[in-house]
Design brief:
The chain is built from 3 helices and 11 strands. By secondary structure, the protein is an alpha+beta fold. Strand 10 (165-170) and strand 11 (178-184) form a beta hairpin. The chain is globular.
Length: 186
Amino acid sequence: MAEEQTITAFTSLEIPTQLVDSMITMQQGRDEMEPQHRDAIHLTLAFLGRLDAEKLADAAAFLSGKTWTAPLIRFTGQVRHGSWALKSDPDYHYDEATLQKGEQIRLGIEPVPELLGIYSDLTRNLGGAEDDYWPHVTLGVARRNVPAASMNTLDIPSQGGPARSLDLRQESEEAHHRVLVTRDFS
């Protein structure tokens, strides 16, 4: 019997173009980080894990069949770091004061009711809820160990705007995650 194929999937929001442009500006001249590629910048909502064809079709149908209000996306000014991938390495120990090589540098997003409502709706119906969900976008990945305080000099914009779309994406090792379904808010 052939093994059923699965893909690793997650849901995300496309942030406003002016915030993507601001992130690109924040990345410039920062040699301590490998910048997130413009086309890969997104706000992850729920990590759905490995989905077979039936579960993937269910997720796509759910996203396509619902209507949500576009949440306002605005940076909080809070910067955090960490790595889900490094957590599986027994030699890795999180250090709040140090951005360690390979850790993601994350910018907080205001948890407005519309965003949290979409998150709740998706996780209730598709799974992927996190106990300590913190809305954020990834600015980049640390190239080497540096003091976390070095991120205090980021010029984080105060403007915001509505999310452009809600997407179902296939996770990829490459910089770009393949968009499987897009649900525009317009």
